[in-house]
Amino acid sequence: MSEASIHHGSVVVLIFLLVTSAGIDIQQHRIPNVLSLGGIILGVALQGWASGFSGVMAGIGGAAVGLGIFLPFYLAHGMGAGDVKLMGAAGAFLGPMNALLATGLSLAAGGAIAVIILLARGSLHTLLKRYWETLVCFIRTLRVEYIPPPAGDVAAMKFPYAAAILIGTVATLWWINELQDLTEFLLISS
After folding, report:
1. Contact (Cβ atoms closer than 8 angstroms) between residue 47 and residue 59
2. Tens of pLDDT along 97-144?
3. Which of 26, 29, 91, 158 is most buried when burial is the number of CB atoms within 10 A of its CB?
4. In angstroms, rounded to a whole number, what is the distance separating the alpha carbons of residues 78 and 64?
5. Cα–Cα distance between 133 and 27 in angstroms, integer?
6. Which of 44, 36, 5, 22 is nearest to 165 (CA)?
7. Coil, strand, or helix at residue 102?
8. For residues 136 and 139, what is the distance between their CA atoms, to the nearest angstrom?
9. Cβ atoms of 69 and 103 closer than 8 Å
10. What is the full DSSP assignment across 38-80?
């Protein structure tokens, strides 16, 4: 069962929200609540406006998927609360199934960005060495012991994850043909 298509105006609002959030996150390493929490409320409201009660439920379900999948990463200190709330906002616009896809693609984009940063700064070898030591420790003791990166190491630095959420969500919109539909709508309307 596929989800209903997203209203064209909602696609534009979602992309604007994510581009704005990514820009602020890149500059300030934070995402304002007015964008993240406001995005959740707006996403649910626009879903309701387009599809009534079922739209509201889809918006709430999508927000829950985005929040629920990203929350463990926040609890493990792997990302900030603003990132979690922004993924919830994207989910509110997308609905549960599309939010699941966007969340997975955002995590993949975040991983790719992290590897690119590590490669660019020559720190990938150090990271892989720490993970190897963790694996060896696990094999010997059957206990997982996280070996944190040393202070100042690239792996210890945070990067603006809103960019990964933007990439993952736009990829989802492309995958579900919403970007093509929006382009056709804009061409026909002009």
Report:
1. yes
2. 999 999 999 999 999 998 999 899 888 888 888 889 888 988 998 887
3. 91
4. 19
5. 35
6. 22
7. helix
8. 5
9. yes
10. HHHHHHHHHHHHHHHHHHHHHHHHHHHHHHHHHHHHHHTTSS-
CA pair distance 139, 119, nearest whole angstrom: 28
Task: Decide: residue 11, CB within 10 A, 0-12 exposed, 13-18 middle, 19+ buried.
Answer: buried
- Chain length of the chain: 190
pLDDT per residue over 61-78, tens digit each?
999 999 999 999 999 888
Q: What is the mean pLDDT of residues 22-38?
A: 97
What pLDDT is recorded for position 160? 92
- The single residue listed with the structure tokens 């919830």 is 88
- Note whether 154 and 118 are within 8 A (CB): yes
As a whole number of Å, the CA-based R_g of the chain is 19
Contact yes or no for 89/40 (Cβ under 8 A): yes
Residue written as tokens 């609002």?
13
